[in-house]
């Protein structure tokens, strides 16, 4: 499993110039705008993630009671499944949705601007069902945990700046949530997470798990890119309408 985890970490680190990270790191854009746009654009995945934890990841309790690995998956899903409340709190604090139009909201969430987020949630749900092994499911969860921690680190830097400037304190995108995200399973009462991390996969499961990790990480990077690209395009369109020229986007060396 260590090979799997290291591969996920390498794939996450390769996303330093993902359009979403470039958007979050763009100091020419006010912190509130960066965070409000990020929150609005990630709504489908953030809320869909709660359904993954509620419906896709957990094993039936009768199975989990006799299998520590399955119980570890269930405990983690139970914890992460409640984080959508933090997300809704941030939407309110950022003023996202104050001018609410139900039909326009549905058109946005199920339109082309959010199609990669929808694809990611639906496809990950399918992949979870392909193999009942908790090791396989653990690897899928680790993709989201490791990628998610990286995103929260970037978002928290912007949220901290926003708090200094306006006293607006974000929960989902701020230090509180980041402190909960270790990049590994949480809500464990034993050493199961360490045991899962150290287990040796048989060649067939290793090959199958490595393939699914590559796909899930590609899905996560793709929906991030969608968010950042749409955020940038929307701002550029508004600036053109106002007769403002956008500065070039700085990329990480």
Sum up the structure in keywords.
253 residues; mainly alpha; 13 helices
Global outline: elongated
Structural class: mainly alpha
Q: Portion of residues in helices?
A: over 70%
Q: Rg from C-alpha positions?
A: 19 Å
How would a crystallographer describe the biggest sheet? none
Low-confidence stretches: none
Q: What is the H-and-E element order?
A: HHHHHHHHHHHHH
Distance between the termini: 31 Å
Number of helices: 13
β-strand percent reads: under 5%
Per DSSP E runs of 2 or more residues, the count of β-strands stands at 0
Mean pLDDT: 91
Brief sketch in words of this structure:
The protein is mainly α and 253 residues long.
Topology:
Blueprint: H1 2-13, H2 19-24, H3 31-41, H4 43-56, H5 61-64, H6 68-80, H7 84-94, H8 102-109, H9 115-128, H10 134-166, H11 175-180, H12 192-198, H13 203-242
Helix pairs in contact: 1-10, 1-13, 3-7, 3-10, 3-13, 4-6, 4-9, 9-13, 10-13
């Amino acid at each position: 499993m260590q090979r799997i985890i290291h591969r996920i970490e390498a794939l996450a680190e390769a996303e330093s110039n993902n359009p979403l990270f470039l958007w979050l790191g763009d100091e020419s854009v006010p912190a509130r705008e960066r965070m409000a746009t990020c929150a609005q654009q990630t709504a489908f995945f953030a809320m869909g993630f709660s359904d993954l934890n509620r419906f896709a990841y957990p094993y039936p309790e009768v199975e989990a009671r006799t299998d520590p690995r399955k119980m570890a998956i269930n405990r983690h899903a139970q914890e992460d499944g409640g984080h959508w409340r933090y997300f809704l709190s941030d939407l309110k604090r950022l003023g996202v949705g104050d001018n609410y139009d139900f039909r326009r909201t549905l058109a946005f969430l199920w339109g082309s601007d959010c199609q990669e987020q929808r694809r990611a949630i639906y496809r990950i749900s399918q992949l979870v069902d392909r193999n009942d092994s908790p090791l396989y499911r653990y690897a899928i969860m680790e993709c989201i945990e490791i990628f998610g921690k990286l995103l929260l680190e970037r978002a928290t830097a912007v949220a901290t700046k926003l708090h200094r400037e306006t006293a607006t304190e974000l929960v989902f995108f701020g230090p509180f949530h980041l402190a909960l995200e270790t990049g590994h399973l949480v809500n464990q009462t034993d050493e199961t997470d360490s045991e899962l991390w150290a287990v040796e996969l048989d060649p067939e499961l290793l090959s199958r798990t490595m393939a699914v990790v590559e796909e899930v990480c590609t899905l996560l990077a793709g929906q991030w890119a969608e968010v950042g690209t749409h955020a940038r395009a929307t701002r550029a369109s508004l600036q053109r309408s106002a007769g403002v020229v956008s500065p070039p986007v700085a990329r990480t060396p």
